[in-house]
């Protein structure tokens, strides 16, 4: 006879409260584990992120189609990277361990110029297990 599983409540599946509040993500400097800082990252379900996504999509539609040749130019690749950094910056709402006051402009600049931070924020925000009640820790 197998063990009876306890029943779950609907609320056990909710990630929005923790996603909106954010969770701390530790970032370690490449090559120097002694240096690290933390970012307070929200998940992809926040209204702020969704609003930025809609703005970005509108801008893309307004630009119109571009040719395959234009799509792969260095200028176009940079433009898309900057747009993605702007979108991801909407996910970060605070930091600690950095001696600069947190602003959206500062996090945008960090994401543009530190690709490892960009990638870490993207992976962390997309992983729903980071925003469950169990993951909540600060």
How far apart the termini lie comes to 40 Å
Question: What radius of gyration results from the CA coordinates?
Answer: 18 Å
* Tally of helical runs: 6
Biggest pleated-sheet summary? 3 strands, antiparallel
Proportion of beta-strand residues: 15-25%
Order of helices and strands: HEEHHHEHH
Fraction of residues in H or I helices: 40-55%
What labels describe this entry?
138 residues, three-stranded antiparallel sheet, 16% strand
Describe the structure.
- The chain is an alpha+beta fold.
- Helices cover 47% and strands 16% of the residues.
- It has six helices and three strands.
- A hairpin with a 2-residue loop joins strand 1 and strand 2.
- The relative contact order is 0.19.
Structure in a nutshell:
With 138 residues, the chain is α+β, with helices and mostly antiparallel strands. Helices cover 47% and strands 16% of the residues.
List the helices and strands and how they pair.
Elements: H1 16-21, E1 23-29, E2 32-41, H2 47-63, H3 68-71, H4 74-89, E3 92-96, H5 104-113, H6 115-126
Antiparallel strand pairs: 1-2, 2-3
């Amino acid at each position: 006879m197998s063990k009876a599983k306890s029943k779950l409540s609907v609320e056990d599946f909710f990630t929005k409260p923790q996603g909106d509040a954010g969770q701390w993500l530790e970032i370690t400097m490449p090559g120097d584990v002694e240096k690290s800082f933390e970012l307070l990252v929200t998940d992809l379900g926040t209204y702020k992120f969704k609003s930025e996504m809609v703005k970005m999509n509108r801008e893309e539609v307004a630009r119109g189609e571009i040719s395959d040749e234009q799509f792969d130019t260095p200028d176009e690749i940079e433009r898309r990277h900057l747009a993605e950094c702007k979108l991801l910056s909407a996910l970060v709402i605070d930091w600690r361990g950095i001696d600069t006051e947190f602003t959206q402009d500062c996090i945008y600049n960090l994401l543009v110029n530190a690709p490892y931070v960009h990638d870490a924020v993207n992976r962390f925000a997309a992983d729903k297990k980071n925003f469950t009640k169990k993951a909540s820790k600060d």
